[in-house]
């Protein structure tokens, strides 16, 4: 018996059997993993409904509030899966943050932004897209908001599935518009507001991309292309960090804390200037100390941009939680108010429990489904390093401030992704420029043929076209979906 167990052939058979079991275990895990996310999401949606039943079970229209809470939870999950990737993607793509670290930071700061600085008073229907008084009854208004919420969530879910970062706010706007048209006709739509939103589709990414490209040009010309890169970094990195600190201080004063205290634009810019100068002064000795002993190469520069990039990602998440969550759960708050009081023409103050639902939903959505879009934004559009990712984050803050000053409604999603495109296209232009310059100075130097250079483009055209197409059709797609849902609801309600 002992001899048999000591037989090498027996050991080989045992190894093969164990390998089969190991392969089976891996395969089972692989098959089961895709079901974990939907299962946990379903549990969260059901818990949201049960919580609403616990608080509103004895009130009028309690069933409507319960269903609306489930839809709000579903919408919040989709915000976490799609929207938050724009803030964290560049930092992850640049390897300044791990995927786990990015998710942890985003969960904390998105939730803090939503609960501490979010919940601002919003107009009854998504920032005045539809005139509330055009609705015939409170019941029709509630069904219209239900349709808008469901259609927006379904559209963002579809976009996440195909890997396209879209604006959840624009999805809600489209949903509200479509439901409003079915409920009250085309005349109920505030077309001047809609035209501004349509203009932001173009303005947001172009402005974000241009600002990101401008800062990347500055970093390349003043630091990367210098003979003594470390000396140049000691001079200019504190300035860049000061600009970032000033921009984010102004951004948070303008957008992040508007529930706590309101600042006018002049005061906001003054706050940003003071924060920027202080940060610049503080960072001079810090960067000098961090740069000691570094080699005179591009790789060394990445360490100097790591911490500012992580901080910027956290601040973007806080501001996003304060801003966009309220827009997305606004229809849920409107449903709760209309169902409880019958009042649907006044402004809606978002209840705290709705913001908690939004904050938790975003956290779960990001944790379960966020990595796909984070990878898309961070590494699959174009290759990012800490310097390029820093330019993207900085452009997001500056673009929002500029847009607020100009009175243009912009999408944080479009700005961030536009910044990634801007950095990528600038790198393509800069590479071509350097090749042409090298060809003039060294005509005998071998270069790639034009076809090969096209193949090596630094921005993936397939992703570029997919994202642009998703942006263009977000509002009309959400509107058509919402209008169809409301039409079906009215048919069912009429038949019953």
TrEMBL record:
Transmembrane annotation, as ranges: 35-56, 63-81, 140-160, 172-191, 197-219, 231-254, 260-282, 303-322, 350-369, 389-406, 412-429, 464-493
The keyword Repressor is annotated on this UniProt entry: no
A biological process from GO: phosphate ion transmembrane transport
Topological type in the membrane: Multi-pass membrane protein
Compartment(s): Membrane
Highest taxon, organism lineage: Bacteria
Annotated signal peptide: none
Keywords of the record: Membrane, Phosphate transport, Transmembrane, Transmembrane helix, Transport
Protein name from the UniProt record: Phosphate transporter
């Amino acid at each position: 018996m002992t001899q048999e167990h000591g037989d090498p052939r027996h050991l080989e058979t045992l190894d093969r059997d164990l390998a089969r079991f190991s392969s089976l275990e891996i395969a089972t895990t692989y098959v089961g993993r895709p079901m974990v996310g939907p299962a946990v999401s379903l549990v969260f949606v059901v818990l949201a409904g049960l919580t609403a039943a616990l608080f509103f079970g004895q009130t009028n229209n309690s069933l409507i509030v319960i269903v609306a809470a489930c839809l709000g939870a579903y919408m919040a999950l989709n915000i976490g899966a799609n929207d938050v990737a724009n803030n964290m993607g560049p930092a992850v793509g640049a390897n300044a943050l791990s995927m786990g670290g990015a998710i942890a930071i985003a969960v904390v700061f998105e939730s803090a932004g939503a609960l501490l600085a979010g919940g601002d008073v919003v107009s009854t229907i998504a920032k005045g897209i539809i005139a509330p008084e055009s609705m015939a009854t409170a019941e029709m208004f509630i069904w219209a908001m239900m349709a808008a919420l469901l259609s927006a969530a379904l559209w963002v879910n579809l976009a996440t599935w195909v890997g396209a970062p879209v604006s959840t706010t624009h999805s809600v706007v489209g949903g509200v518009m479509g439901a409003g048209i079915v409920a009250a006709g085309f005349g109920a739509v505030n077309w001047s507001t809609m035209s501004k939103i349509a203009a932001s589709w173009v303005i947001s990414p172009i402005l974000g991309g241009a600002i990101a490209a401008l800062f990347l040009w500055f970093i390349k010309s003043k630091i990367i292309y210098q003979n003594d890169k470390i000396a140049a970094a000691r001079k200019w990195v504190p300035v860049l960090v000061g600009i970032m600190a000033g921009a984010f201080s102004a951004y948070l004063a303008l957008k992040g804390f508007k529930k706590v205290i309101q600042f006018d634009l002049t005061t906001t810019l003054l706050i940003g200037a003071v924060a920027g100068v202080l940060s610049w002064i503080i960072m001079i000795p810090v960067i000098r100390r961090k740069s000691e002993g570094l080699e005179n190469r591009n790789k060394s520069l990445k360490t100097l941009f790591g911490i500012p990039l992580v901080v910027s990602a956290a601040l973007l998440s806080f501001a996003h939680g304060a801003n966009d969550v309220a827009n997305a759960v606004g229809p849920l708050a409107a449903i709760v108010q209309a169902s409880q009081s019958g009042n649907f023409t006044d402004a809606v103050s978002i209840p705290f429990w709705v913001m908690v639902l939004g904050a938790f939903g975003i956290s779960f959505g990001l944790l379960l489904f966020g990595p796909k879009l984070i990878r898309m934004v961070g590494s699959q559009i174009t290759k990012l390093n800490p310097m390029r990712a820093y330019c993207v984050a900085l452009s997001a803050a500056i673009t929002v401030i500029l847009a607020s000053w100009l009175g243009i409604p912009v999408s944080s999603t479009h700005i961030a992704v536009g910044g990634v495109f801007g950095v990528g296209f600038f790198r393509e232009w800069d590479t071509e420029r350097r090749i042409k310059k090298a060809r003039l100075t060294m005509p005998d130097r071998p270069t790639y043929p034009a076809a090969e250079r096209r193949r090596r483009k630094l921005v993936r055209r397939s992703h570029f076209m997919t994202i642009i197409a998703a942006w263009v059709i977000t509002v009309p797609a959400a509107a058509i979906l919402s209008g169809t849902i409301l039409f079906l609801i009215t048919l069912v309600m009429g038949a019953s």
